[in-house]
Write a structure and sequence with these properties.
7 domains, mainly beta, Methylamine Dehydrogenase, Chain H, Immunoglobulin-like, 8-stranded antiparallel sheet, 3 helices
């Protein structure tokens, strides 16, 4: 055994969002140093048996031979708010095998994790409460004391190495002893990895902002289904370029306006809109909303930042709380924490605003910080700092608090090789961020104190563009624009690299992934939402668990909340995916009925209980919110007083609903409580003979008789104790009660009762719908005591004409009951008439119903018919009734004609009418026609058919085309008409300059002829472009062409290249990018439309590489130029190229 005193370095990682709160950072990570009585043991069972290492922290008292467990590390959790729910805590340790003489020289170093999952009752932190002990497992014991966490660690690892091997142990210190014996020590690498550290996972079922929380971890510990289907989808209007936020049962999403929907949906495949806030004429909202403290924050393309009331006004609208104008468009998503809003703008600035506002539709600027280019990514907040990237290639770390004079300080910056459009993620003291130089970077979040920070590791991902990293499970996940999703080890190696764990290729570009329940969710450019296994297969691959295909690109990141996934598509729809039906009901209660074993009756009062509380929980013991609950009283019809209609409700978020039956006294009948169409309770002991409701041993007692006698000879006809229905509680009723006195459920009373039903079954045979037939049966009292009960039925098509309801029959008397069969549905109808007593048989009624009028072929599908051609078919009307049938067959459809059988008709019983219909379309498309038969007893006939369009498609999608290149695609104009020529001319109705029609002009096509139309797309921008092609013929549909420019880095290619400026049109600043494959003398000038030089932006010798220059709309004299068309021309060696630009002021 070896013992070594240890020093400790501890890092508490950034915390996940608690419900409605934000990430907390904890400074001063060194919480508790060991004292002299702290010892760490390493033991081995013996040579040749393998090594069983155990890290144990022991302390001893006065007797050095008596040891007990002692707290090894402490983490300060005093910043956690009261009520925070912690789901798990993971302690990270390194185990080594080898001789760690220096930072990176060892044979093997393995990361070990000890995870303890806490029961919900144990996970409530109280910063002012007392200590609570939590015995989690044999391997760990936790304790909370006034917001502190003591972790007593006993971590066991079985290492299959020889027991005599000396170079092994736990890395628990950065001290070097030079000792030849096994060492056990906490170990901290100076490169930034601090081990051990504690990862606290807080419960969070919401998704309040882009990438989930202020640190952009993109992780939610919600339980997620293994498969998913669309629960609802809503059309939200044109433009869909931001991600949703989900808070408090609502989904917030921007299109061209800001919208709020019910997150649960309406149960019918869509969701109700709660409110709509009109922004005004603007472009799409790229800024994803943040919902914090009842407010919604987002930015728009006009450069304005909005704060709205999240709840709305209840009338489909909501109120503006404040707005703030920046200098250019907003594509950054806000982070809201600690009463401040942090967001970037294309005017190059990072803004910090007061989240509350001034109460007059304005708010205050706390500080702003200017970067070197536009900002498209979103900031991350952690430990009082803001981390953000810019298109000047730099990642910035800023003081989040500011200086109090609308400025703040730069803490450090880090230069990448290209634009930083990827939003940073902060976790465990590290900043993870992607760059357009194709790399993913892991940086030290703290910095060096001199304006710089250290690169911990970097990895090549591919074209990252706007994909942001997601962090969980000790791994970092990121998407790309061509390489799918990659998963890396988040800690990295000791040499500035990290390990690629797996890669999964998806179709098209992949935007920012999100994580939950061991799964990775990401949308891609082929319109598919994919769910992947986060763990991987151990061979560089992982499994696709499920996917869902939309009809257009997915260019946003999903949101995950309460087991559901929310994501938008450029098809203008917002989707909610999850599992249906809801979890099975395992636990339920109905109070106070469960306590009494009865419905309605309150013990000892003799009155009804008006309030019932129903609680529903699933198989996990979790509440079942928004479940439909009903109390079914149909069996008590005629037996209870004031039975309400529609006695139902919906459980709240705690799975609870309160219902108020308010039903008067009842005779014995069944009361059923249902949840989601599932019976959860059936109460059969509902009787007014048990007046006090205690059902002592199931018997009617003397006290019940006393209650009864208090009503004797009183006019209470509504009380069910009036068994004979005389309107009084009289001697007859008393004799009925006396018969049951002292008996168990009145069963011994059966000795006095007997009855006979004649007949016990009735066959109504065949009846035409719309007619009726009556028949009778008889109830005879063949017993010695009076018979009191109820005749009832609840069947469509059958009714009791007489003899129904309560009846009283003295011995020997009989009751004739008349039953009517009046069918409403065709086919066999069955009904059971209940006579109310087990000694009397129920009466089974059957009958067959037929329509008085039968129309054979009520739907006719003509299929495809070319314009000018026709097809004929028939249908038949049959009179089934015993009298004449009259009507008129008619239609008013442009493509359908009745050739025969049309007009007025009269059919004798049994006669038929054959009708011939012709379908002769004249225009393309789908055609429907309703042929009316003219009699309400006869079904109308629905005709459908379709005619092919003259164009082969209405949409030509060019996809992504590399800037500087072109793509040609074609569509066909086909004359499908049977006899007429097709004429027109191909021309652009609306188009960007990026499109050109290579085969435009007039055409005249004979039947069967075709014309091929070829369109060229040569993008000049990264923005999506559209062209609408018209054929100058109303019968030929327009064709829409669309495409997007794609930038491909040319830094390593032997090509000169001048990109289209971006943005274009612009005001007042635009960026111009170009590539130099080799060193060259470069001159870049701006000319007006007259060819006059406006300004020279570059005139110098430059080295090879990709370059960016900005033009601020000023001439050589620094004077603003007017709106209009300008030309950018570059000369580099023998290379010359010109691009057109538009300045709009």
């Amino acid at each position: 055994m070896n013992m070594r005193r240890a020093s400790i370095v501890v890092l508490l990682t950034s915390l996940l969002l608690p419900l409605g709160s934000f990430a907390y950072g904890v400074e001063s990570p060194i919480i508790l140093h060991p004292t002299d009585d702290t010892w760490i043991f390493n033991s081995s069972p013996g040579a040749g048996m393998g090594l069983h290492d155990s890290l144990q922290v022991m302390s001893h008292g006065p007797d050095p031979h008596i040891f007990s467990q002692k707290a090894l590390v402490k983490f300060d959790l005093s910043d956690l708010p009261p009520g925070t729910t912690i789901s798990s805590a993971t302690l990270y340790l390194y185990y080594y095998h080898g001789n760690p003489e220096s930072e990176c020289r060892y044979e093997e170093l393995r990361l070990r994790r000890i995870t303890c999952f806490w029961e919900e009752d144990w996970a409530t932190w109280d910063t002012v409460g007392s200590c609570y002990d939590f015995s989690i497992t044999d391997a760990a014991r936790m304790q909370t004391c006034y917001g502190w966490l003591d972790w007593n660690v006993t971590a066991d690892v079985q290492a299959m190495i020889d027991g005599m091997e000396s170079n092994h142990g736990w890395m628990v210190s950065d001290e070097r002893t030079g000792d030849d014996h096994p060492v056990i020590r906490f170990w901290a690498r100076e490169s930034g990895h601090k081990i051990p550290f504690l990862e606290i996972v807080l419960e969070s079922e919401e998704w309040p902002m882009y990438l989930h929380d202020a640190s952009n971890r993109a992780y939610n510990n919600s339980n997620m289904p293994d498969t998913a289907e669309v629960i609802w989808d809503n059309y939200v209007g044109p433009g869909f370029d931001c991600s949703p936020a989900v808070v408090d049962g609502k989904v917030y999403i921007g299109s061209t306006d800001m919208l709020c929907y019910d997150a649960l949906g309406d149960g019918e495949g869509s969701s109700d809109q709660i409110w709509h806030y009109y922004i005004g004429p603007s472009h799409n909202i790229y800024s994803s909303p943040a919902v914090v403290d009842g407010k919604v924050y987002f930015g728009v393309e006009t450069g304005e930042i909005y704060c709205l009331d999240a709840a709305g006004n209840g009338d489909g609208t909501t109120d503006l709380i404040w707005s703030y104008m920046t200098g250019d468009r907003i594509r950054s998503s806000p982070v809201v924490t600690d009463g401040k809003v942090y967001i970037g703008s294309w005017d190059r600035n990072v803004y910090c605003l007061d989240a509350e506002g001034n109460g007059d539709l304005t708010t205050d600027l706390v500080w702003s910080y200017s970067t070197g280019s536009v900002i498209s990514c979103s900031p991350a907040f952690s430990n009082g700092r803001i981390y953000i990237g810019s298109n000047d290639d730099i990642v910035y770390c800023l003081d989040a608090e500011g200086n109090g004079d609308e400025t703040t300080d730069l803490i450090w910056s880090f230069a990448t090789g290209d634009d930083v459009m990827s939003s940073p993620t902060v976790f465990s003291g590290h900043v993870y961020v992607g760059s357009n130089d194709d790399n993913l970077y892991c940086l030290d979040a703290e910095g060096n104190g001199d304006g710089t920070t250290d690169l911990i590791w970097s990895a090549i991902v591919g074209s990252i563009q706007k994909s942001s990293p997601a962090i969980a499970y000790g791994r970092v996940y990121i998407g790309s624009f061509g390489s799918g999703i990659k998963c890396f080890d988040a800690l990295g190696n000791c040499d500035g690299t990290t390990d690629l764990i797996w890669t999964h290729i998806l179709g098209g570009r992949v935007y920012s992934p999100v994580l939950a329940d061991g799964k990775v969710y990401a949308g891609s450019g082929d319109g598919v939402l994919s769910c992947l296994d986060a763990e991987g297969n151990g061979d560089g691959t992982t499994d696709l668990l499920w996917d869902h295909t939309t009809s257009d690109d997915i260019q946003t990141s999903p949101a995950i909340a309460r087991g559901r996934i929310y994501i938008g598509s450029t098809n203008h729809h917002l989707y909610c995916l999850g599992t249906l039906p809801p979890p099975s009901i395992v636990q339920s209660s109905v109070e106070p009925w469960d306590s009494y074993g009865l419905a309605f009756v309150c013990p000892g009062t003799g009155t009804s209980c008006d309030s019932v509380t129903v609680t529903i929980r699933d198989e996990n013991g979790d509440p079942c919110p928004y479940y439909d609950v009903e109390i079914d009283l149909s069996d008590c019809t005629g037996l209870c007083i004031d039975i309400p209609d529609g006695l139902s409700g919906t459980t709240d978020r705690d799975g609870v609903v309160r219902l108020d039956p308010r039903v008067g006294g009842c005779a014995e009948c069944d009361v059923i409580v249902r949840a989601m169409d599932t019976d959860i309770r059936i109460y059969s002991k509902v009787t007014s003979s048990d007046w006090d409701g205690n059902w002592a041993d199931g018997k009617v007692e003397t006290v019940d008789s006393l209650y009864f006698m208090s009503q004797f000879m009183q006019p209470f006809p509504e009380l069910c104790a009036d068994y004979d229905g005389s309107g009084y509680v009289d001697l007859v009723d008393l004799s009925m009660l006396a018969c049951c006195m002292g008996t168990s459920n009145a069963e011994t009373c059966s000795l006095f009762y007997d009855c006979e039903i004649v007949p016990c079954s009735i066959d109504f045979e065949t009846l035409v719908i719309g007619t009726t037939f009556d028949t009778t049966f008889v109830i005879r009292n063949t017993g010695s005591a009076s018979l009191c009960d109820t005749v009832s039925l609840s069947c469509d098509g059958f009714s009791l004409v007489s003899g129904g309801g309560l009846y009283y029959l003295p011995s020997g008397d009989s009751l004739e009951v008349t039953v009517r069969f009046e069918p409403v549905d065709t086919g066999t109808n069955v009904c059971t008439i209940e006579t109310g007593d087990s000694r009397c048989c129920d009466v089974l009624c059957t009958g067959v119903a037929v329509n008085p009028c039968v129309v054979e072929s009520t739907t006719i599908d003509f299929g495809m018919v070319n314009a000018g051609c026709h097809i004929d078919t028939t249908f038949t009307i049959i009179n089934n009734q015993d009298e004449a049938l009259s009507g008129t067959v008619s239609e008013s459809c442009p493509c359908d004609t009745i050739l025969s059988g049309g007009g007025p008709y009269t059919l004798a019983p049994g006669e038929t009418l054959r009708v011939t219909v012709r379908f002769q379309p004249t225009i393309p498309g789908t055609h429907t026609c309703l042929i009316e038969t003219g009699d309400p007893l006869c079904c109308d006939v629905q005709c459908t058919g379709w005619t092919p369009f003259y164009t082969s498609t209405d949409h030509v999608d060019f996809g992504e085309v590399e800037l500087g290149k072109s793509r040609d695609l074609s569509f066909m104009i086909d004359n499908h008409h049977c006899s007429d020529s097709l004429t027109g001319s191909v021309h652009e109705l609306f188009a960007y300059d990026d499109f050109s029609i290579l085969s435009s002009g007039h055409f005249n096509l004979a039947p069967g002829e075709s014309k091929k139309v070829t369109v060229r797309f040569e993008p000049s921008s990264l923005e999506k472009r559209i062209c609408v092609i018209d054929m100058n013929n109303e019968q030929i549909r327009d064709v829409v062409c669309s495409g997007t420019g794609k930038y491909v880095s040319r830094g390593s290619k032997t090509l000169f290249f001048l990109e289209q400026n971006d943005p274009n049109p612009f005001n007042p600043i635009t960026e111009i990018r170009y590539n130099l494959p080799r060193d060259a003398r470069v001159r870049l000038d701006i000319f007006n439309i007259l060819g006059q030089k406006v300004v020279t932006l570059v005139n110098e010798h430059q080295s090879a590489g990709f370059k960016t220059i900005s033009w601020n709309g000023k001439n050589d004299r620094e004077t603003d130029v007017s709106s209009g068309v300008y030309f950018c021309r570059i000369r580099a060696g023998d290379y010359t190229e010109t691009r057109k630009m538009i300045l709009l002021r």
